[in-house]
Amino acid sequence: MLIKYYLCSILTLSLAAFANASKETLVLLNNLVIKETHSILFNTLKERGYHLTFKSADDPTLVLSKYGKYFYENLIIFAPTVQEFGGSLSIETITQFIDDGGNVLFTGGVSTGSALRELAAECGFEVTEENSSLIDHLNFDASDSGKHTLVVTSSSNLIKSEEIVGKSNEKPLLYEGTTVITDPKNPLVLPILHAESTAYSYKPDLPVKDYSLGTGKDLLLIAALQARNNARVVFSGSLYFFSDVAFRTSVQKVDGKTYNISGNQEVASNIVLWTLKDRGMIRVKSVNHHKVGESSPPPSYTIMDMAVFLIELERWENGKWIPHDANDVQVEFVRIDPFWRGNLNNMKNGNYEFTFKIPDTYGVYQFKVEYNRIGFTAIRSSTMVSVIPLEHTQYERFILSAYPYYSSAFSMMFGVFIFSFVFLHYREDKAKGE
Amino acid sequence: MKVVFLFFVTTGCLCLSSSLSVDTYLTSRDKDQLKNVLLTGLESENLSDVFYAVSGLQQLNQQIPDVQAVCNKLVKYVGKAKSLSLDFVYFSTSAWKTIATCTGKLVVDESVQEIYAMLEKKDIRDVHMSDLYFGVSILSNLNLKPKDITKLINIIKRKMKPDDTITDFGYSIHLLASLGPDGRFAFNRLSDAIMQVDQVDRKFLQFEGGLSVTALVLTGVYKFCDAVQCNTSFPIQNDQALMFSNYLLSRKSVQTPKGAYFLLNALKTLSNNKYHLPIAATLVKPMGDLDDTQKILSVRFTNLLGEPLPTSLSVGVESAMLNNKVVMSKNKFKSTADKTVYELEFNEPDLSIGIYSIVISATPLEKVKIPLLGNTAIPLEVKVSASSVNIVDFKVGTTDNDQQTGPSLQTLKYGEKLSTKLKADHMQRIIVRFAIKDHQVKKHVQVHQAFVRFTNTKTGSQSVFVAELDSQNNYKLDMDLGVKSVSFKHASGLYSMDLIIGDSLLKKPIVWHFSDIKLKFSEVESDVSESFADFYKPKKLISHTFREPEPRPPHIVSLLFTILSLAPLLVLFVLWARLGVNIKNFPFNLSAIGFHSALASIFILFGMFWVYLDMFITLKYLFLLGISTFLFGNRLLSYIARRRNK
Fold first, then answer.
1. Topology versus the membrane, per the UniProt entry (chain A) (predicted)?
2. Which pTM does this prediction carry?
3. SS3 A126
4. Contact residues, chain A, for B561 at CB < 8 Å
5. A385 vs A301, A341, B584, CA distance in Å?
6. Helices marked H in B422-510 — which ranges?
7. Minimal Cα distance from A413: which residue of B?
């Protein structure tokens, strides 16, 4: 009886652990005040079912994993000035965490600590110099303290992706902090929010010597990295961007335009949820392929067969998987190079179909679906099939051009048959011959 | 550990005692926001939020909308709950009492009996300090009293331990404060508890657990000291009070009714007590916002809630520095019609632009009972900006890259636009030169931002280039278009050129559209692929090209040759007919029929092999047919030979 009880509890415990697995989130803070000043964001996450563990960034007991198993799926670092992490946490362990699929959101500030700088560099973001701040003399908020560093940036500077930043609207965004520069050719780094063309990054109290720190739209305020393993890393140069104050304040631009409320709350919570893989997640539900007129995959295709490739995609939305509809999904039929690349027909409810003729070269092929779209997880699916040449009975049998050969062969056979009759059984008519 | 920490806190306070001040207060906008937060609390399903909302609104002197609905809610919740926990009853009765105008009755008699039973208990190990506090508060809410106060104090004495959590400590001093001077025994605990406070950025003091705990302990200490009269030895130092004030004001944006209530409660306690009065000195406009037309600096002195101080002040400048040089001292502020605002004429010696660091002090003019805090050595940063600047000696033009011909520059006045469009190609340079002068003093001015912006009139894409400052304070942009063509993405076309001048010391930034320019880049480089965008776009379609089948002759030719190949058989029959062949010798016996039919079968088998049989089946049949053909053939031939020999 007791054993039964234990078994039962172990089962439920492991189930509970499994259900919470993707929601375990470690939040590192400079000090616990940040937990209160950013309470709206944290409450949003709690309502979405995330289990947040708040720790100080230099807590000596910090640990991400034990015996190769991670305690957390997500890491949020709201500790801009941290110089060195506490406990067993270091740049190496965090990059390893990302390599193993963990998601990281971290923010800098006017003085970004060396630990975060290094982490940013590992992810392909170059944080501008210490004590430099985003300055825009043409777009700052009325509540700015006088250095023009509380910048109002238009929501049109956001990346065009509903998955990452939500539906576009007019509300401007408030931003105060540092900036990053990235290599625009790196396809994995996404510029989520860039500066206005009139903005630049410099130390507000010093006269300008040179603008090596970057100007205009090259400056990124929020940058994201979606790694090849779909781990997501987001860096924001501003911790203020995510704060309760920024969420709830009204915006008065220096040119006189006023807005009742900033757009920060929507955009920031969408960005955070995207980082924690609550948005923009798609996956392959099923893959199928068969010859036209059949319904199950054959052991192999013969060259020149008509084949159908079917795939079903799903998207994670509001806590459940729903069919994903798009019209730009492509499939490739690849041996070493693609022989076919075609648009999959959307058949509704997340089903896609592509009908094509198998090439006339035999070999080992793959059906490949590689779907990279901004804001979505990358899908890479490949299914291997073999394509064989025709069997001897499968060639064309009655070729008109070959009729002379057929007829000569059969006439020969018929001739032999008839001739053997005549040759063996001919009776010379003696009367006539005499 | 604690001693070390105390040492740290006290030394920290000592070092910083000169520069501590409060630079913000609860503005009416903040109050509106807090009010909105509290109003949402009224709607809450959670009884504690209703209580916090009701009390918070009372602290703000706001009316509670639809009082009777709230009262009904309380009655309903209390009636509905099966077993009433103490905090539940505490929140409902306190809200009831705070509203004061509720009609009806809360039925909580059972809980009152429970509280009395709890206070009589011998074994108090499982009684929490919060329960004691809630219990006694419920009694006082219902205008009842604990039966034996000395016994209650004994219970508290036994329960209070040095390692209590700070929350429990907060409840216990609140409880003791409500019991009057008999709680004096706990006085020594106060400084122990205050030692546990955390210091943040040398500016804030808070207890672990955040706003509500800090506020709970802070208000508790003041109440307790009111009750036991610890006048002279008040445990919170002046600097600590200022740091607590700073912490509380930094949490103005709190979003929960609970936080809003505690914030208001604590700020109210700090502003209305017998021990000290922290004041907030704030610039009326951010950084003063002075320029050559507006030369009066206004500073507002209020308590933390934004209310006027009980006394008028004499405000003086202790020191004022611009770029580490002393510019004025001992100037006095004037009072104004607004009791809270004091003004300083800021025009001496001459008002050069820059950021001034000013230290001011305010001393009360009248004798005040309660000493002011944070009124000396208040640091302020004041900005004097230029209201307008002029751009002079502005020249723009193009020149060839080889620099054999001098540049052809056109001069423009600020505000005008070049009448003809400029033209440049990738072999040329664009040159812009200008200087910036102050309107007033006609001096050269250095600015933080001097950009030339190119905007493609068709696509709207923008590129920004920086004009650099030379040793004569002139700005110059000298740009090789061939080198910079990457920034333009090699897109030829019409661009508009803007000059952007900005600085935090400039009242109005300048954006001047001074010219249009037609740029031409070399075509060869123009199709550079953007790998970033390509990565996320659908790729080009590929369809497989199948091998062409070999050409075949026309049908007529094939049919003709078929007929030709059948012709010999026809000729055979014709000739035989002419010869008159016969098969009269055919013996009707088994071997003859067998041989011929077997031979025919072999040929038919070949036909079938061609059409559908495979080789193995064909060989099997052929073997059987071959043997029979051989045997029948042998017998037939020997029969024919025998017949001939006869």
1. Single-pass type I membrane protein
2. 0.80
3. strand
4. 403-404
5. 7, 16, 67
6. 481-484
7. B603
